[in-house]
From TrEMBL:
Zn(2+) binds at C5, H18. Keywords: Metal-binding, Zinc. It comes from Billgrantia kenyensis. GO terms for molecular function: DNA-3-methyladenine glycosylase activity; metal ion binding. GO terms for biological process: base-excision repair. This is DNA-3-methyladenine glycosylase I. The lineage of its organism: Bacteria, Pseudomonadati, Pseudomonadota, Gammaproteobacteria, Oceanospirillales. SUPFAM superfamilies: DNA-glycosylase (SSF48150). InterPro entries: Adenine_glyco, DNA-3mA_glycosylase, DNA_glycosylase. It comes from the Bacteria.
Length: 184
């Protein structure tokens, strides 16, 4: 079975994402929201397709400004569904808008999306999936697993032999600091 660490190095799109983002702790709700939207849009498609459209997603979704996206109405929804530069799937667009509103509410109750994630950490993947399904739209096991691995809440983003793995550990991802007393 191929692993991302085997496929990504040297690739013009996968390489930079693998080396600088995948598995590293993510700071800030905007970045977390972006990653969630991208993971949702990857469903049924290749990650390469999403990476190539990433800048278009940023533009289309107002740089993932949570308040702006949460306020999108019919005009913005139709604009997104007509934008050939992004993935035009009504369920995914609706999920992004709905989930922005959910993140706003989580910020009111927990201070931020990141604080909500930290509040529930550590959970195993199945528990995370149940929580996400109760909380968000379009968040099945693969989307939740990839979102949490890619943002440092679940292990498995890199082989232990991958040089990036040690750099990630040095950043103290949630899955690792919880296992290492005194690191968090």
């Amino acid at each position: 079975m191929s692993h991302y660490c085997d496929l990504a190095p040297g690739h013009p799109w996968h390489g930079p994402y693998h080396d600088r983002e995948y598995g590293f702790p993510v700071e800030g709700d905007t970045a977390l929201f972006e990653r969630l939207v991208l993971e949702i849009n990857q469903a049924g498609l290749s990650w390469l397709t999403v990476l190539k459209k990433r800048e278009a997603f940023r533009h289309a979704f107002d740089n993932f400004d949570i308040e702006r996206v949460a306020a999108y109405g019919d005009v913005e929804r139709e604009r997104l569904l007509g934008d050939a530069a992004i993935i035009r799937n009504r369920l995914k667009v609706d999920a992004a808008i709905h989930n922005a509103g959910v993140i706003q509410r989580l910020s009111e109750t927990h201070g931020s999306f990141a604080s909500w994630l930290d509040h529930h950490h550590p959970l195993d993947k199945d528990e995370w999936v149940k929580l996400f399904r109760r909380t968000f739209r379009f968040t099945g096991p693969e989307i939740v697993g990839e979102f949490l691995m890619s943002t440092g809440y679940l292990p498995g983003a890199h082989h232990e032999e991958c040089p990036v793995h040690q750099r990630i550990l040095a950043c103290g991802p949630a899955w690792y600091t919880h296992r290492q007393p005194g690191l968090r």
